[in-house]
Design goal:
One of its GO terms (molecular function) is adenosylhomocysteinase activity. This is S-adenosyl-L-homocysteine hydrolase NAD binding domain-containing protein. It holds the Pfam family AdoHcyase. The protein has 195 residues and is α/β, with parallel strands linked by helices. The chain has 2 domains: 137 residues, 3-Layer(aba) Sandwich (Rossmann fold); 57 residues, no CATH class. It is built from 8 helices and 6 strands; from the N terminus they run ββααβαβαβαβααα. A hairpin with a 3-residue loop joins strand 1 and strand 2. Helix 1 crosses helix 3, helix 1 crosses helix 4 and helix 3 packs parallel to helix 4. The longest helix is centred in the C-terminal third of the chain and has 19 residues. The termini are far apart.
């Protein structure tokens, strides 16, 4: 596993990923036109963008489009099996985005990657979260909404999420992460992101 402000299977796959991205750019003229029309205007300048989409070569082209028009990007996959490791490696190595994705993640790793993709290391005055999300399956959105709901309950009367309250294995993981953050003193992370 290769790590930095990213977590990918094998950073040495980046050259292969870069070649595939260059081919995909030719096949994706709409995004290339978006870059051309907006590179000077920079409509995403200063915007933090979190994404949860299949981390494929085509998604890599989207990530780099968002970056080229000003976005500060953090990304994870929306599926534990869909990551193309060479695509993730190229995006990580070339610093197009902080990417947290590899093929074959466990469910726990998947949700930790989702948390990493919505958490910047520095507070921009609005917290450590994104301004915009690109969310394919709704998992990133779910984490934000459940986090806000849990923070509101905790601030009201000290209630913590109870992972044993559900039989759904993934939702147990979500509640465990949110509970861990609340117990560590993060009581306004999700409210800031929601705002």
């Amino acid at each position: 596993m290769s790590t930095g402000d990213y977590k990918v299977a094998d950073i040495s796959l980046a050259d292969y990923g870069r070649k595939e991205i260059e081919i995909a750019e030719i096949e994706m003229p709409g995004l290339m036109n978006c870059v051309e029309e907006n590179k000077d205007r920079q409509p995403l300048a200063g915007a933090r963008v979190s994404g949860s989409l299949h981390m494929t070569i085509q998604t890599a082209v989207l990530i780099e489009t968002l970056k080229k028009i000003g976005g500060d990007i953090r990304w994870c996959s929306c599926n534990i099996f869909s990551t193309q490791d060479h695509a993730a490696a190229a995006i990580a190595r070339d610093e197009s985005a902080a990417v947290f994705a590899w093929k074959g993640e466990t469910l726990e790793e998947y949700w930790e990657c989702t948390l990493s993709a919505v958490t910047w290391p520095e507070d921009d005055g609005k917290g450590h979260g994104p301004d915009i999300i690109v969310d394919d399956g709704g998992d990133m959105t779910l984490l934000i909404h459940e986090g806000k709901k849990a923070e509101d309950a905790f601030l009201k009367d000290g209630t913590l999420p109870d992972p044993t309250s559900t039989d759904n294995e993934e939702f147990k993981i979500v509640l465990t992460i949110i509970k861990r953050l609340l117990e560590a003193g993060e009581t306004d992370k999700w409210n800031k992101i929601a705002a």
